[in-house]
Design goal:
Number of domains: 1
Radius of gyration: 37 Å
Shape: rod-shaped
Keywords: Competence, Membrane, Methylation, Transmembrane, Transmembrane helix
Pfam families: N_methyl (PF07963)
Structural class: alpha+beta
Largest sheet: 3 strands, antiparallel
Subcellular location: Cell surface; Membrane
Membrane topology: Single-pass membrane protein
Helix content: 25-40%
Distance between the termini: 125 Å
Low-confidence stretches: none
GO biological process, one term: establishment of competence for transformation
């Protein structure tokens, strides 16, 4: 006769009862510390992004400013090549505004400063025309052209 051993049936053991606070933790959601960490990380990323974008905007303004200086210098050169006296180029105000001799045939309208400052200024000394950006401070740009 063959004898078989029957293994006792094991019942799955239940987890011991836990306090209610521990059970809540298993529910979905974030803790306050996790939320604060995310907010801090987002603030750092936004701050770095703001600095980078602001630097690019400033570079674009400086490039536009230099292009405006070159446009005014080109118009002044054409004014002189048409036989006009260079001494009359700056006019009485020395500004490239609506009353400037360059407006009309040489410049359609006064170039707009990227910083919304005053007008560009022109100065003639001998055979050199100097055009200065209205934006003062460290970013002021000057272009000198000989005719």
């Amino acid at each position: 006769m063959v004898t078989q051993e029957i293994a006792p049936v094991r019942r799955e053991e239940k987890e011991p009862a836990r306090p209610q606070a521990v059970r809540r933790r298993r529910q979905g959601g974030f803790t306050l510390i996790e939320m604060l960490a995310v907010v801090v990380i987002l603030a750092i990323v936004a701050g770095v992004g703001f600095v980078v974008v602001n630097n690019q905007i400033e570079k674009a303004r400086e490039n536009t400013d230099m292009a405006n200086l070159r446009t005014i210098a080109d118009a002044a050169n054409r004014y002189i090549m048409d036989g006009n006296d260079p001494a009359t180029l700056p006019g009485t105000s020395k500004k490239v505004d609506q009353n400037s001799v360059l407006i009309g045939a040489y410049l359609g309208a006064p170039p707009k400063d990227p910083w919304n400052s005053a007008y560009y200024s022109i100065d003639v000394q001998g055979n050199t025309i100097t055009i200065t950006s209205p934006h003062g401070g460290n970013n002021a740009q000057t272009l000198s052209v000989k005719f």
